Structure formats: C-alpha cells, structure tokens
Backbone:
C-alpha cells in the first residue's frame, strides 16, 4: 500500500504534489508514474476498486479513506459531524462509500506583454493550491444531507477544509471538527432547507 510505504515526494519536478488512487488489491494509479514519469488520466481511476485517494509531495501525505470519508494528514485523522440539540449527524466515519472523488489545482498565469511574439517566456503559469476530497449524498436519521468536503493545500498558507452542506430541512446546529477522535472546534452553522452552507476551516 503506497500510503503505508511512506511515499511522500512527487516524481516530477514541475509539480509539488501528485494524486494517488490506492486500490483494495494492493495496486495503485498515480498522476505520474514513478519510473517513467508518464502522466495518467484522472478518468482512468477505477472508483469501484478504490480504498484511499490522496496527494503526496513536499514530504507529506494527505488522503481520505473511501470507506468512511475520514481524512488523514501526516498521521492526523480529521472527522466532521453536524450537531443539533436533538442529534449528532456524523458526516464522516460512517460505513458509506465516499467514492465520488474530486481533485483539482488552482493556478495563476502571468503575462509579459513586452515579450509579444515570443513563444517561450511570455506566459508564466504557477500552481498555487492543490485540492482533493469528495461529495456525498446521505440519509441520516430524519434528514437528507448533501456533503462536500475538500482538503486544500495552498502555497505559503495554512491548509484548510472547505466544507459545503445542504440539508432538506432547516437545522439550527453546529459543525463539530475532531482530530484523532478529540473535538478541536465547534462552529455555529445554521442551515436553511435547500440552501448550501459553506465554510473554510483552517487545519490546526
């Protein structure tokens, strides 16, 4: 298993992080092959065999378990739930299949108009943030919730969870963030039916 084997460096110099799709049979697909450096397509990932999906690079591993949606960042496990006065709804840690995976990069491109006509050097593209996560529709007790959670890694800033929740009924509750099983934050987050609630939580 690649995440157990402590792979934590990108095999290509032009990209700090690459995605890794780890399968239940011990095989994996990486964004770039470690030997040939050849690129693989995200659309070739077999979601039916997927057990973990994540990023490696800069000496770090960030991934989530497809079987429960729990994120692991350098051995720290991050879990999310939503709590009202009546119930606590676990949004991660359930025996669901979180295989509607998402990954993308934020990039900027600078242009130097003084170099008009030059084929090289005119545009300077730079990746400024890596993102991975999933979206999941789940029926929890008396409510249906659409949950999207992304772990974002920007350059020169703290990593954060970008959380988006939509409920089919009004809820007055709070988001509960746990690290390694212990509550590290509680955020009041009332939800209006059929309206998305979004927040970014800085990982600490």
Residues:
């Amino acid at each position: 298993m690649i995440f157990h084997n402590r792979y934590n460096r990108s095999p290509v110099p032009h990209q700090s992080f690459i995605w890794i799709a780890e399968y239940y049979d011990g095989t994996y697909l990486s964004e770039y092959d470690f030997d040939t450096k050849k690129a693989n397509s995200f659309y070739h990932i077999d979601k039916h065999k997927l057990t973990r999906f994540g990023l490696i690079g800069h000496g770090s591993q960030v991934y989530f378990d497809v079987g429960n949606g729990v994120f692991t960042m350098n051995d720290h496990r991050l879990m999310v739930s939503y709590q009202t006065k009546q119930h606590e709804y676990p949004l991660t840690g359930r025996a669901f299949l979180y295989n509607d995976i998402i990954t993308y990069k934020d990039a900027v491109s600078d242009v130097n108009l003084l170099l008009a006509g030059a084929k090289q050097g005119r545009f300077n593209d730079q990746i400024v943030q890596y993102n991975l996560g999933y979206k999941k529709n789940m029926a929890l007790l008396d409510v249906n919730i659409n949950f999207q959670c992304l772990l974002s890694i920007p350059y020169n800033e703290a990593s954060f969870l970008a959380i988006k929740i939509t409920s089919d009924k009004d809820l007055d509750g709070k988001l509960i963030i746990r690290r390694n099983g212990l509550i590290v934050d509680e955020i009041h987050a009332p939800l209006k039916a059929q309206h998305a609630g979004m927040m970014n939580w800085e990982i600490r």
In short: The CA atoms of residues 4 and 61 lie 10 Å apart. The two ends are 27 Å apart (CA to CA). The first strand starts at residue 18 and ends at 23.
